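Run log, item B.
One chain of 427 residues. Sequence copied directly from the ordering sheet:
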Amino acid sequence: MPAYVLVGAQWGDEGKGKIVDYLAAQTDLVVRYAGGNNAGHTVINQMGTFSLHLVPSGIFHPETTCIIGNGVVLDPAVFLAEISDLRSRGVDVSRVFISDRAHVIMPYHILLDQLEESAKGGLAIGTTGKGVGPAYMDKTARVGIRAGELLDPISLKPRLQQVIQYKNSILTKIYNSESFDLESVFTQCVEWGKQLKEFLRPTELLLQQAIARGKSILIEGAQGTLLDLDHGTYPYVTSSSSSVAGISGGLGIPPRDVSAVIGVFKAYCTRVGSGPIPTEMPTDIGVDIRERAWEYGTTTGRARRIGWFDAVVGRYSSRINGFTSAVLTRLDVLDGMPTVRICVGYKINGEIVEHFPSTTTLFEQCEPIYEDMDGWNEPTAGVTQLSQLPKEAMRYVKRLEELIECPIRLISTGPNREETIHIEPLF
């Protein structure tokens, strides 16, 4: 069987973790292809509530293999802590594998990330400070350390010595910070190698073999399309290809093996960190939704900014990724609102535009054009059948389908697995 992809359609935080957990029962492998522990997926099931940052959300299904692909940057300390927590709570982690080609987030990456953000002051991007961006920079500059290299200390040390000498120059001369000790970092790397050895594999081969044997693969996105390095709201983006474009490079499987691309949309918009969000709600409404839905970052705990559904962004995302179907989450958060708004276009200097601008400068000038729809008083929270939705909520869903040019086949009405309306098969 081919592979299926689940991609965030907005600025991340769309509720992908719950959806992957829900769909993983139908798949043999769940695979992560981009990002690092700057992503966070919250999963609630019969075992409890879990916050995952690196381990794929399919881990709670005993027959599902979970793979972290080469396109991910891995913080070994975070991964090992996550594995330890899962083990302590009775979760089998023997089915988790990491690509030996995945790049490692080193201690100097984390410090540089934080120092660089601090130095930017009011122009800061709003990164998580986890070292993800600097790790990808080193990958591109060909001075990164791959996970597989941690198993070969003799070859690793001279490489590490060269990199640390360069990083220490930046830390001491530009940021007036303390330098890193080579021996301390090297010792840490050797220890990481010992602890990671059981998880490291040539995962591109595992995936290619699984496809050849007819196994089903669910590919799990991190962040969202509007944070994609190429297609997002640059420069307020992440450092990897979080759209469908990152899959082949991040996993080592060809595009022909992907047969469905599923977009996950929240029933409204949220964004963490800096950057424009044209439909940002008035403070009172935004605060109410934030508290009702507990819209705080899984990774950082930062309050998310809240906006009405932006159909211009949604349609752009649908076209960029080629969504074959969509999932709508958090519909229940809008319960009880007298009016729900949808942005159907923008005005820029009085001119109406219906496409997503390519520059942040233009995007910041966008004045949303809204279409108002009647809200609903009957609760949708916990609903599991389409026939149980209030007619106003159903109209809202249908209107979103028209605007994003993609059928919505799954609706999440709460954080638990069973709080789901499965309209049609996604794949």
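Observations after the first pass:
- Residues 103-196 form a domain with the Adenylosuccinate Synthetase, subunit A; domain 2 fold (CATH 1.10.300.10).
- The chain has a mean pLDDT of 93.
Flagged for discussion on Thursday.
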